Amino acid sequence: METCEKWWKEGEGQLMYQAFYRAYRPQTFGDMSGQEHVRRTLQNALLQSKTTHAYLFSGPRGTGKTSAAKIFAKALNCAGAPSAEPCNQCASCLGIMDGSDTDVIEFDAASNSRVEEIRDIIEKVRFAPSNSRYKVYIIDEVHMLSNSAFNALLKTLEEPPSHVVFILATTEPHKLPPTIISRCQRFDFKPLSRADLTGRMEQVLDDVGAGYDVQALKVIARAAAGGMRDALSMLDQAVSFGGDGVSLEDAVMVTGSIGEELFRDIGLALAEKDAAGALSILDRLVSEGKDVVRLTEDLVTFFRDLLVMKAAPDMPDLYELVSDPELVSGLSERLAENRLYAFIDILSETRQDMRFSNHARVYLEAALLRMIQADGGPAPAGKPAEGPEADELQLKVARLEQTVLDLQKMLREGTAGQGIAPAAAQPAVPQRRPAPKSKNGFNIQEGRIKDILSRATKDDIRAIKSNWAAVLGGMQKSQSALLNDAEPVAASGNAFVLKFKYAIHCGMAAGNPDFMASLSRLLTEKTGNAYEAVFVPEEDWLRIRETFIREHGLAKPQEKDGQTEDGRDPDEAAAEEALGLLGESGAFEKDPIIEEAEKLFGKQAVHVHDD
């Protein structure tokens, strides 16, 4: 502590108090907590005289970036150089410590971000230092400089005079241009560990002669989140609050944290599924001014500690919030691992939702209720149903099983009766051919289209076409635009084929549920009949129509300029030819399997579907 500034300073005839984070700022590399990789690299460079012209110190707030820059500046200009530490006794070191050395310039880019301030630096860079070996520019919060300022600094930063060293410090290095970063030696400062923070606070309290509770220092270290400046500021406040020393209650009150007992009480309420108890604890904490978001994060940490306690009970150093394992050991045994995982998932999801709402308390209340109901796994299987309903259900299952067996038997007998190889040589269930796809990946219901063609009627297609303009007029413009190049080409009593000129429009229409619902509703209103729309691109429709005509021995209508010789639409002519053939023969010769299926399930349930 000899190298730290005094806690009290003389000022205008009276003692002036200094905050801990200022009074105990490190004055040598040895005083710095953590950052071993930074200290060793800089000290080796000093000893070997391998210092460079530009450095970039980046990292979270309060991790020692500016302090390291000042220590490095003192070591560069120290009378005892080259050395790994400044002596803090020569005129140069003392001048840098009290801010009177004009050769070490601290520049705050947050309040001097314009290009004019940077140009002033550039003009003065060429002048030699007045008293020291190096002129050192420490530019803090360098990411706040404007683009023009960065551009102005670029050339000087790359090739400054030999007597100049730039040290840039920032908490947001991603905002710096790559051209700036590439011209510097970069050092990333890491958040300080809780052990480093606690050790430094113990040194400070020992130096000022204040008593303390180690658990209180751990609470402050956890709240500081890796920042030494934050830790010392809260420690300063806790000393003022407690008077004689720092107790656990003082630390909890100052940091806004929650006592370990309250976390245990919340966990017990959740374990016992006591919603009233959990919500009452939350209400009390909110009324005391506790931050709901902070509470949510601490609950995640608490349940994480319980998981660690289950998995590694012999490693208490891994606990982040739990300081007394005996206090929560009973709760850890009562809560199963799957419930703890569920608690953490629910709280993490709630923490994300809180970012977009002003009602954080409501979200946490809902999370507590969800956690009470959460079992951490699938619901346990219930007991088998009993009574008349169970008997009826079993009867239905038996009937379905018998139906499947009958169908399989008829399938074997039907194929054998048609002169095909015996059933023993055939697979019980034939493999389905995958449905063909258009060029844009749209699944074409070819079997469904052929089914519509086999049942098509002139009255249905004419009813749809005569009302088609009214249907388009009733749709939204964004929906009707998809139908500009679409046309109904065949229809049966309950379905119709809608041909699209472009496959992409066909896919967009088929993938839009609102479009499908609107088209079906308007068609029903205009025609008085509910038609199911089956979409198909034009090129696929022509192929399917050609195949259908060939398979059923229909004469293909001769087309000229998009019409048949008698002036009819080729699609309508094909449908009429199919209808004519059906009228003459009565119906297509049915497969005996299909006839048996119709007897079992009824004709209305028989459709051809492609997966």
UniProtKB/TrEMBL annotation:
Reactions the enzyme catalyzes: DNA(n) + a 2'-deoxyribonucleoside 5'-triphosphate = DNA(n+1) + diphosphate
Residue ranges annotated for the AAA+ ATPase domain, each copy included: 51-192
Domain of life: Bacteria
Pfam family, one: DNA_pol3_gamma3
Record InterPro entries: AAA+_ATPase, ClpA/B, DNA_pol3_clamp-load_cplx_C, DNA_pol_III_gamma-3, DNA_pol_III_sug/sutau_N, DNA_Rep/Repair_Clamp_Loader, HLD_clamp_pol_III_gamma_tau, P-loop_NTPase
Family classification: Belongs to the DnaX/STICHEL family.
Transmembrane segments: none
Keywords, in A-Z order: ATP-binding, DNA replication, DNA-directed DNA polymerase, Metal-binding, Nucleotide-binding, Nucleotidyltransferase, Transferase, Zinc
Region called Disordered, residue ranges: 419-441, 553-572
Name of the protein in question: DNA-directed DNA polymerase
Biological classification of the source: Bacteria, Bacillati, Bacillota, Bacilli, Bacillales
Annotated EC: 2.7.7.7
Classification via NCBIfam families: dnaX_nterm, PRK05563.1
